[in-house]
Amino acid sequence: MVDGRWRTGCAATVPVYRRALLAGAAGLGAGLIARRGRAQIAPPAARDRPTAGDLLVRVAGDDGRPLAVGDIAPSEKPVMAWPLEPRSGTVRNGSRLNKVLVLRLDPSGFDAPTKANAAEGVLAYSAICPHTGCEVANWHAEKQILECPCHFSQYDPKAGAKVIGGPSPRRLAALPLSAAEDGRLTVARPFIGRVGVAQQS
């Protein structure tokens, strides 16, 4: 055509303005996807491993109030929790490796290292099974045993969550706790042991 809007010489004629419009829309879409991807990246503090002085908050079903010793029912199913950096209020939920299970048992049955890591019978362990990375979500109250539902690795929380059954290559990492004067559970030291899935040799 004479106004230059149509380009010929191909098997099909394509309007120049339509091609420009499509190219612009594609560029805009790519930009929005890139911005969305950047917005979903957790800030560094949320990905950092728990450290001494952090508090604990429930993963779900709470108002963000830090957990206290009295919030953990004795011998009941563990509570899933995230560490909370108290100064900034940052919940360290930017990495699933920070998820911990918190349970309360009679400390008279703990071995010495486990007792040293407990706060009034409350224990915290990594919730991530070292075998394939599933969450250790099963609790056998009668035996007081933790179990991964994927391949049935079992752990004894009274003995530092050592492996007592199944294919897991190592125990769950322990997160030592202390109790503040108001009863709030506080991280005493970083994880003891490696968190996450074992590297295959």
- Give the rounded overall mean pLDDT: 86
Structural class: alpha+beta
CATH class of the largest domain equals Mainly Beta
Provide the CATH topology of the largest domain.
Answer: Rieske Iron-sulfur Protein
Q: Report the strand count.
A: 13
DSSP summary: helix tally: 3
CATH superfamily of the largest domain: Rieske [2Fe-2S] iron-sulphur domain
Q: Nearest-angstrom radius of gyration?
A: 25 Å
Estimate the global geometry from the Cα principal axes: globular
| Named CATH architecture of the largest domain | 3-layer Sandwich
What is the straight-line distance between the termini? 67 Å
* Helix content, binned percent: 10-25%
Précis, in short:
The protein is an alpha+beta fold and 201 residues long. It is 17% helix and 23% strand. It has two domains: 6-39, no CATH class; 44-187, Rieske [2Fe-2S] iron-sulphur domain (Rieske Iron-sulfur Protein), CATH 2.102.10.10.
